[in-house]
Amino acid sequence: VQLQASGGGLVQAGGSLRLSCEASGSIVRINGMGWYRQPPGKQRELVAVITTGGYTNYADSVKGRFTISRDSAKNTVALQMNSLKPEDTAVYYCKMTVRDYYAVNDYWGQGTQVTVSS
Questions:
Q1: CB of 40 within 8 A of CB of 86?
Q2: Got the DSSP string for 29-76?
Q3: 84 near 7, Cβ under 8 Å?
Q4: What is the pLDDT of residues 10-30, one digit of tens each?
Q5: Percent of the chain residues past pLDDT 70, beyond the cut
Q6: Continuous segment of H or E residues that includes residue 100
Q7: Which of 1, 21, 34, 82 is deepest in the core (most CB within 10 A)?
């Protein structure tokens, strides 16, 4: 299973970006999907997660600004980021919990850089 993330870039404060992540490979079912980020010099942190039933959970710092969504038929997860702030600058990673024909494992995307200028 491979995860391919896209959509990062450079944006001014107050702007918007949309991240996407697509899974491919031997997939039977994808359970949880989520986005994490790692700011410069800091540890990776949860941004948002979404379950198969559409339940979502967000970090307090992004509530009301970011929206996570999924398309289970296409094995994709997206993160719409609005009202971006310089402190949102980080490498963003997608993560999926994937059931293949043998086991359930967590997979990570390669990371996409988001830079917000003030």
A1: no
A2: EEEEEEEEEE-TTS--EEEEEE-TT--EEE-TTTTTTEEEEEETTTTE
A3: no
A4: 999 999 999 999 999 999 999
A5: 100
A6: none
A7: 21
